[in-house]
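User: Structure please.
Assistant: Input sequence and predicted structure:
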Amino acid sequence: MSEPFDTVSTPPSASPAPRRGSNAWLWLLIVLLIAGGGGWYGWREWQHRQIREREAAADADQRLEALDQRVDTLRTNQEAQNRRIVQADSTNRVLRDELHGIGQRAALIEDSVSKLADPDRHGAQAMRLDETELLLTLGQQRLLIAGDLEGARRAYALAGGVLDGIDDPAYLSLRQTLLQETAALKELGIEPRMQAMAKLDALAQTLTLPEETAKQAAPAPAPWWQRAFGSLIETQPVDRTVASHPSDRAAALAGLQLEISLARAAAERRDVAGYRVALKRAERWVQRLSAPSPAQQRQLAALRELAALPLSLSVPTLGTTLQQLRQLRTAH
């Protein structure tokens, strides 16, 4: 009976438990190793992926920057091309205008050459007629605009010399007209404006009358009351406007000289109205400076004579030679 109990013992049955525990730890260790390896591999792959993304972003930034530089370069090149196109357009426009001008000048030269080569026109005669027309125009303009009578006479004399070299009988009447107009210019004498200015300058030197002249002009015995109170009271007519005080006389003389200067300036620019108004005011200053007397009347008459002088030339035949020359050239 004891043997069966001996055969069934606890030690043999307790030996497999440690084996199952060791296997579990082994499996746990393997799982941990696998998980750690997988984590390490995943972390490594994630690092590589981050590096690749950063490299791709950097590459994209470099490409974008290079693209911006290319765009800027293209934009700069386009602006330079636009400037070149505008400059070329301006140059072409200038060249086109110059070419047009050259064409016009060539046409004018061709027309002039054809006119000079015309047997009915005679080149030398045409040049002499052109010179005559130019001289007549200059003489007329110098006389009308500048009032240069001597210059007009010289221009007409030169035109007569040039016209004498033309032997065409069709211009005989033109030479006769030129001689008549030249003779009319010689008969004018002094240019009216210069003559008026010279007379004004001469009158300005003598256009003063001392106050004593008016007092000595009509001496008369003084009445008793003037002899008695003459040293205390000085009387004069109420309608008398003669300046007696030195300051008044100085102001009147200054006003007289100013009016003469204004009249001279008006004569210089051929202002007839201003010239006559200034001389009219000068008459009042003369009456202010002196009492009525023969000398005052002579000076007033001189002022009125100056005011009646013309300031411009009056030549009825002026320009007839030029007009006739142009009519003859048009007819031929």
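The chain has 13 helices and no strands.
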